[in-house]
Each structure stands twice: as structure tokens, then as C-alpha cells.
Write a structure and sequence with these properties.
With about 150 residues, the protein is α/β, with parallel strands linked by helices. The protein has one domain: 3-Layer(aba) Sandwich (Rossmann fold), CATH 3.40.50. About 40% of the residues lie in helices and about 20% in strands. The chain has 5 helices and 6 strands. It has a 6-stranded mixed β-sheet with strand order 3-4-2-1-5-6, sandwiched between helices. Helix 3 packs parallel to helix 5. The protein starts with 5 loop residues before the first strand and ends in a 6-residue tail after the last strand. The relative contact order is 0.22.
Length: about 150
């Protein structure tokens, strides 16, 4: 049996992000696997760049929104203890960029949160649902329970 060697955490900064990150870290520890992280920016305009969708974390820019997102991502990764060489902040459609990066870096497990949507949201699809159906590697969708009051 082949154990996981490279796990990719798909981070979204939701209120349940810590739960998803803790499970990814536990799996990486269990399998002594490399843990990488990706966060996809789909809410700020993408400037015309020569480096594609991956945002270099070490280079500065005049884009205040981008610099704010970079600082937030770096702080988050530092708190999780993820190696700077295993961090990817990218622009694009989350499901496409996560799968593209996973394929490019020989990831064998993607860990993402899932809200277990129903009805119209299910028909439109979610990132976790797309990953489950289109990724070439294993995917763990961590169920994020909604508070019922």
C-alpha cells in the first residue's frame, strides 16, 4: 500500500479553516508527508503580470489589495508551520487552480473543507465537489457542519 507523500491543503480562511488545517496537518504527521498549502484569490482583480497565476510571495507590488492578501497568507502559513517553498498563493478559479497545482507538483492527497450544500448550491457545484470529481489524486472533503439554532 502506497502512503501519502505530498498533501495539499486548500485554504479558504472560512470560519472552519482551522478544522480543515488541523486535519491536513494530522494526516501529514501520520504519513510523514510533505504538507503544502494553496489559497486561490478569486475576489480581487488580477493585474497584467508576466508570471501567470502564481503570485511570488517574496516580490513586492504597488497593488495594496494584493499586498494585504500576501501578508495574510504568509502569516497564516507561518502559524501552521508550512515551509515557505510549499506555499502557493494564486489567482483564478479555485477548483481549476487547485487541480492544476496538484498535478504540477505530484500531490497525492488534497484536503479541503465542504459545507455539504443542498439544492441549487449543489447543482451549481462547490470547490470541494469539483475536486472530488476532477482531481487525479485522492481528495478528503472535511465536512463543515453549519450551526443550527
Amino acid at each position: 500500500m502506497q502512503y501519502y507523500q505530498h498533501i495539499l491543503l486548500a485554504a479558504d480562511y472560512s470560519e472552519h479553516a482551522a478544522t480543515v488545517a488541523a486535519k491536513a496537518q494530522a494526516l501529514a504527521n501520520l504519513y510523514q508527508a510533505k504538507l503544502s498549502i494553496i489559497h486561490v484569490l478569486d475576489n480581487i482583480p488580477m493585474p497584467d503580470t508576466g508570471y501567470g497565476t502564481v503570485i511570488p510571495l517574496e516580490a513586492g507590488s504597488d497593488n495594496v489589495l494584493l499586498e494585504t492578501e500576501k501578508a495574510r497568507f504568509i502569516l497564516y502559513c507561518d502559524r501552521l508551520g508550512i515551509d515557505p517553498a510549499s506555499r502557493w498563493l494564486v489567482w483564478g478559479v479555485p477548483k481549476q487552480e487547485i487541480i492544476r497545482l496538484a498535478n504540477q507538483h505530484s500531490v497525492d492527497l488534497i484536503v479541503a473543507g465542504s459545507h455539504g450544500r443542498h439544492g441549487l448550491a449543489l447543482l451549481l457545484g462547490s470547490t470541494a465537489n469539483s475536486l472530488l470529481h476532477h482531481a487525479l489524486c485522492d481528495v478528503i472533503a472535511v465536512r463543515l457542519l453549519q450551526d443550527v439554532t
